[in-house]
């Protein structure tokens, strides 16, 4: 998809005569996809050699949510009931939206857990390709290559593929949606038109994909207004193109509303709850709100949740997660939780903000190499990162007790994470100095900030997996950061969108 606006590869050339392109930009777009696939398959073979049972039994997933996802899909396909019950009667489920359970359930039925992990490895590879396409449009090929390579070698994302959790599928669908809808728009340089029949079809298809993305992880529900309104905003609300951009927005809205609306209608019919899920209210009260209690009283998450349940006279988190163990209706319990959300958040507002910020920071730098140890049936001696940073000799001794391979994975994830963050800061500076391409820049930045802020929904106990949806957008700016640094100071200075004095007439 070609655009008239200048990309980061051309920005440096605006200050001096054209230079030959670097060999790096001749790399094909699928290079990162191949590298991602290679790393993922190598790790898969390592699991096959060391712990083959992990690839045949989904119950070996440590995360209970992962086991629930597969059970939901299996029950739907084999029993005809969308339920997390292991035996009749199969109580219908309202917590999980259907796309990911159907995906993993089908794969497990036909190929065991190993088929799930192989499919997610492939999807991650495809996500690297999609990221290349997105970044190349906004920032140029050099930034696109580095961004996609950063995602291809991000071990946190790769390891996440070996759990039956929805992040790999969600990331792929979200990137595909972004590519199709193209929120920054493709405008004719003379008329400012943003559409045509082809663009309208893409918007409708992208809208349907956005709806399926929302049914994978409901957190993307609040991105629907973003994708609907941004085409009109990027057009400048000019009278002569409002009708065409309005058609695009309506196509996105219609496409996304169809799958989302059908699932909401199902929940209304079964539970009298006109919503996608009840997870949102539970997370706000029992994770975000609980973080304030954790900070205020210095207690654990479980203790904080128990205090909230007792103080506000609402069902416990366990009961809300397993509604079939009580005679009360889901709608009644959900209404009680929603009624106290504001009170819980305002009980200790300062502590809530601090705990959310702490959770975001923690998830932003934490690692998931421990899952590698689990998959390979190895033991990981926890050194405690805080102690390592303080130079505690005993912590470094504990780290040395681990196998070299696991130490290498820990170092890989830690170093790459910190380096990516640093480069992304540079990339944001480069991007914001390019005033001509600000629509695309702001769209990418909005996606990153949105998914970064959603980490706060996990409270102060957020961990590495929580940041996976934000990783593609972070690496996009990190790739631009590398492109800017390799181009020299001229890519960072004020001449990025203006000619230098020597070029002025």
What can you tell me about this protein's structure?
The chain has one domain (8-279, 395-494). It has 505 residues and is mainly α. The protein is 65% helix and 0% strand. The protein has helices at residues 8-11, 31-50, 64-79, 99-139, 141-152, 155-160, 167-181, 197-214, 224-234, 242-271, 279-297, 301-312, 317-321, 330-339, 341-347, 349-365, 369-375, 385-389, 393-400, 404-433, 438-454, 471-487. It starts with 7 loop residues before the first helix and ends in an 18-residue tail after the last helix.
* Global geometry: globular
Whole-Å distance between the termini?
34 Å
The arrangement of helices and strands along the chain is HHHHHHHHHHHHHHHHHHHHHH
Q: Report the biggest beta sheet as strand number plus sense, adding barrel if it closes.
A: none
How large a portion of the residues is in β-strands, by DSSP E?
A: under 5%
Number of domains: 1
Give the class from helix and strand content and strand pairing.
Answer: mainly alpha
- The counted number of beta strands is 0
Radius of gyration: 24 Å
Name the average pLDDT: 86
Work out the helix count: 22
Share of helix among residues? 55-70%
| Low-pLDDT residue intervals, each spanning 5 or more residues | 1-8, 10-26, 187-195, 489-505
Which helices and strands appear, and what pairs or packs with what?
Layout: H1 8-11, H2 31-50, H3 64-79, H4 99-139, H5 141-152, H6 155-160, H7 167-181, H8 197-214, H9 224-234, H10 242-271, H11 279-297, H12 301-312, H13 317-321, H14 330-339, H15 341-347, H16 349-365, H17 369-375, H18 385-389, H19 393-400, H20 404-433, H21 438-454, H22 471-487
Helix pairs in contact: 2-4, 2-5, 3-4, 4-5, 4-7, 4-22, 5-22, 7-8, 8-10, 9-10, 11-12, 11-15, 11-16, 17-20, 20-22, 21-22
């Amino acid at each position: 998809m070609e655009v008239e606006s200048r990309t980061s590869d051309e920005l440096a050339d605006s200050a001096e005569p054209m230079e030959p392109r670097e060999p790096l930009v001749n790399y094909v777009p699928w290079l990162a996809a191949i590298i991602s696939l290679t790393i993922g398959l190598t790790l898969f073979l390592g699991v096959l050699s060391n712990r083959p049972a992990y690839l045949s039994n989904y119950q070996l997933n440590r995360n209970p949510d992962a086991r629930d996802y597969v059970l939901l899909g299996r029950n739907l396909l084999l029993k005809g009931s969308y339920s997390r019950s292991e035996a009749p009667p199969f109580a219908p489920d309202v917590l999980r939206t259907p796309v990911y359970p159907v995906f993993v359930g089908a794969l497990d039925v036909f190929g065991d857990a190993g088929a799930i992990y192989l499919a997610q490895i492939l999807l991650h590879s495809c996500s690297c390709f999609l990221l290349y396409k997105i970044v190349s449009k906004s920032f140029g090929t050099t930034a696109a290559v580095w961004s996609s390579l950063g995602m291809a070698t991000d071990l946190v994302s790769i390891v996440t593929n070996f759990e039956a959790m929805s992040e790999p599928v969600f990331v792929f669908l979200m990137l595909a949606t972004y590519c199709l809808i193209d929120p920054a728009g493709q405008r004719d340089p003379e008329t400012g038109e943003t559409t045509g029949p082809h663009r309208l079809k893409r918007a409708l298809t992208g809208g349907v994909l956005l709806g399926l993305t929302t049914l994978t992880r409901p957190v993307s529900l609040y991105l629907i207004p973003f994708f609907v309104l941004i085409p009109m905003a990027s057009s400048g609300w000019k009278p002569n193109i409002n009708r065409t951009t309005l058609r695009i927005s309506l196509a996105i809205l219609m496409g996304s509303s169809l799958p989302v609306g059908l699932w909401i209608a199902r929940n209304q019919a079964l539970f009298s709850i006109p919503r996608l899920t009840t997870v949102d209210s539970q997370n706000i009260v029992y994770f975000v709100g609980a973080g304030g209690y954790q900070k205020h009283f210095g207690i654990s998450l479980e203790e904080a949740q128990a205090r909230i349940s007792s103080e506000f006279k609402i069902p416990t988190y366990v009961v809300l997660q397993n509604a079939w163990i009580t005679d009360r209706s889901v709608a009644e319990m959900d209404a009680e939780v929603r009624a106290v959300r504001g009170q819980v958040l305002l009980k200790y507002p300062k502590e809530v903000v601090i705990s959310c910020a702490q959770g975001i920071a923690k998830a932003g730098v934490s690692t998931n190499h421990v899952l590698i140890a689990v998959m390979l049936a190895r033991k990981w001696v926890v050194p405690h990162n805080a102690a390592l940073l303080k130079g505690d000799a005993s912590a470094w001794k504990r780290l040395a007790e681990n196998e070299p391979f696991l130490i290498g994975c820990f170092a890989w994830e830690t170093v790459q994470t910190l380096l990516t963050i640093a480069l992304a800061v540079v990339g944001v500076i480069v991007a914001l100095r390019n005033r001509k391409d600000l629509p695309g820049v702001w769209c990418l930045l909005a996606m990153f900030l949105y998914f970064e802020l959603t980490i706060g929904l996990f409270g102060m106990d957020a961990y590495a997996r929580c940041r996976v949806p934000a990783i593609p957008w972070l690496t996009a700016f990190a790739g631009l950061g590398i492109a800017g640094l390799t181009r020299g100071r001229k890519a960072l200075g004020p001449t990025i969108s203006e000619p230098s004095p020597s070029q002025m007439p």
